[in-house]
Amino acid sequence: MIITMVKELDQKSEVLILSLFENDNLKHYSFELDKEISELIKKNIFSLKFGEIYGTKVKDWSYRKVIVLGLGKKEELTLEKVRRVMGKLIKCVKGLKAESVCTNVAEEILLIKSFKLNDLGKAVGEGLLLAEYEFAKYLSKEKLDKKKIINNVSLILNREVSEDFVQGLKIGRIIAEATNFAKDLVNEPASICTPVYVEKIAQKVADDNKKVKIRILNYEELKKEGLNSFLGVSKGSPIAARLIFLEYNNGAGEKAAIIGKGITFDSGGYNLKMTGYIEDMKSDMAGAAAVLAIIKLAAELNLKRDILGVIPLCENMIGGSAQKPGDIVKAYNGKTVEIRNTDAEGRLILADALAYTEAKYKPSSMIDLATLTGACVIALGYYASGIMGKDEGLIKNLVEAGEKSGDRVWELPFYEDYQDAMDGTISDLRNTSGKGKGYEGGAINGGVFLSKFVVKAKWAHIDIAGPAFVIEESDYLQKGGTGAGVRLLSYYFMGD
Ligand code: BES
Ligand code: MG
Ligand code: ZN
Fold first, then answer.
1. Which of 186, 234, 343 to mutate to test the pocket of ligand 1 (most atoms within 8 A of CB)?
2. Mean pLDDT of 317-323
3. Are 77 and 71 in contact, with CB atoms under 8 Å apart?
4. In ligand 1, which atom is closest to the CA atom of 439?
5. Beta strand 65-70 pairing with 2-6
6. Which CATH number characterizes residue 329's domain?
7. Contact between 81 and 70 (Cβ < 8 Å)
8. In this structure, is residue 165 part of a structural domain?
């Protein structure tokens, strides 16, 4: 998709989408249009409320269709609404099977002075390119041919084209493309997207970017180093586990490690998942996909940061050699863990990844992204990830990055009272809670378990189980993988 700046109606796109704020003067693009809109408003048929769409009868121009899109009240505009409006616009264009569109959205929103032009540019770029995405590679040619690719979006900007806005657009595009890259990995079926496949993609990220170095620990090395909590999970699979480190060094400051859960399929193991719960478990590597995407993006944006991406990869399967409930493993940090439930596997692989990363790389902060618990989906649904940890400063920064990026996180309590839930009886720890019925506060207990594997780094755990894979499309995200965590950590690392 090419984004072009034009000074006025381009007269050559297939579709024209004019956006207007509520209670604003009409823009006099054409007499016909003004007349039609004001009549509709008078008759209470159309009101320019945010997201309202109306297909006009206007035939003044060469456009195949002229659509009016409501922006709502000026004072209520947010960056998230900008993304959403761009998403609605792209959906309209797709619905019309058009290949090009001209719009005045940028012209309108740039009038609002409370936003930085750069931020508006980012939101426009993100909205357009996130909404354009489709996972279409498995559609047959017949179905694919019916779809049209949007070649060009003309943004009307009848003023000095601001460098800041254009720069923001470029950054927004890179952020969206990295997010779409993560969506692709999550949507890919688990028969293709195995630990071997993800390793190949990671290798490519490193090959394509000089500033990224890769290190891969294979089965023998993991065994030798004693990452038995991780290896236990992979025992039921013929595909060996691997632990990938992607080092992006381009700063002089503190090293931040980001660790992503990479279970390429979670069957639950012997605590097998039931129908209704197992179908989308190819998405259990969404944390890993996000980490890969963020490293790729850091390199493309040349962020002045030192970021270490850590990706533990394996499958959680059943079979003659699979781990059993009641087994006890000794983790990398020496703590023993009783496997009470083979389906609580994410924490087992992350525990070793966190402990090993801290011991060997000594990062000052560690942020893990994981589709860790169904309990988090129950608690927060699909529109916020859960965040917890003991470093309030780190959490505050992440919550702020979430608000700004629209990839939101909500802090869960992490009181002292919770901290003994994962203590074992015949082992140091157990992988499910020993308190009450075992499932109360399930999202928090997952975090409590992980905290036992962090010594002194600032650490935050982000449970993306809800937002990472959604069952309904929204304005700029599609059903399936969403790339949750990518925009969040992009904004966090860009830090303004
Ligand atoms: N991958 C799942 C969590 C999950 C559930 C992610 C739904 C996305 C959607 C995780 O490995 C898991 O199975 N967790 C268990 C933990 C329980 C056994 C303590 C769960 O949530 O049921
Ligand atoms: Mg599981
Ligand atoms: Zn899982």
1. 343
2. 98
3. yes
4. 19
5. unpaired
6. 3.40.630.10
7. no
8. no
